[in-house]
Amino acid sequence: MHDSRLQQLTQWAKQQFTHAIDILPASNDASFRRYFRVYHADKSWIIMDAPPEKESLTAFIHVAKLLKPLVQVPVILAQDLKLGFLLLSDLGQQSYLTALQSLPAESLYPDAIASLITIQAATKTQQNSLPHYSPALLRQELQLFPEWFIARHHQQVIPEWLDKIFDVLIDNATAQPQVIVHRDFHSRNLMYMANNNPGIIDFQDAVIGPISYDLVSLLRDSYYVLPRQQLTQFCHHYFEQAKQQKLITQAISFATFQRWFDLMGVQRQLKILGIFCRLHYRDGKSHYLHDLKQTLCYLQQVTPAYPELKELTQFLTDHQWIDE
């Protein structure tokens, strides 16, 4: 990793500390950002490397300030927007995805749901401080499915009925209560913490959007699969908590919420299929292709229950991509 960017980062990091430090790669994500862990003695910090020509730090800084009084997020200790570097507190190396290898889901997910409710309950004061998940943005995301998954990855003709399906999914999203949405609230972005669990990262794309979006990211996670009965239990748990906080009115039945949740999941999973293929073809990040199968599994579990999605159900059945 001897690149000029890393040399810049190392020089900047040394300016932030009066003592000797070691710098090691921490992780990459699905964007152009990279993360490095800075060590001194028994302490560690994180440096985010976001090349200014490709990634803006402004949104991350803004959302970090918004979330800091509410939940556990990294503290920004130093910043250089011109260079594209942030020095952050370190929330550790144990994501929910890692923790779930040794801990039961019921010891982790209630904390994540409690944090989600706390974030959503702060929506009233933040309505104008975040972008809105507009119908145009929802449609733009959905277009990734035909462009990258159908046409590019499978070299199939894009069906004409797809726009009608997109209309159903967008109408479902906009009909829901609109709250603060993290947009990637899943097991890789939740850190298992001994205190104030979970730590929450990768929140820079936050918007005001559908109330079921982050819950479906958490419970229908492309990287970790919950048993169906447990998923339903967590869904009910969230629903009751959301009603207590008046995020959902008493008039809304669980059946209505289930439809919101399921169709929101279809929107997200179609988008993810497109994103994973784009990461492979455009960005050379081919490991995301391994997660296509689980994302397709979620779609094939859900769509048959909704007659308004019958063309999509038949399309997925006909092509049997899940068996590849």
Question: What do you see in this structure?
Answer:
The chain is an alpha+beta fold and 324 residues long. It has two domains: 4-89, Phosphorylase Kinase, domain 1; 96-323, Aminoglycoside 3'-phosphotransferase, Chain: A, domain 2 (Alpha-Beta Complex). Helix content is 45%, strand content 13%. The chain has twelve helices and nine strands. The strands form three sheets. A five-stranded antiparallel sheet has the order 1-2-3-5-4, with helices on one face. Strand 2 (34-40) and strand 3 form a beta hairpin. The longest helix is centred in the last third of the chain and has 28 residues, at 254-281. The radius of gyration is 20 Å and the shape is globular. The model has no long low-confidence stretch (mean pLDDT 94).
What descriptors fit this protein?
324 residues, alpha+beta, Phosphorylase Kinase, domain 1, Aminoglycoside 3'-phosphotransferase, Chain: A, domain 2, 5-stranded antiparallel β-sheet, 9 strands, 45% helix, globular
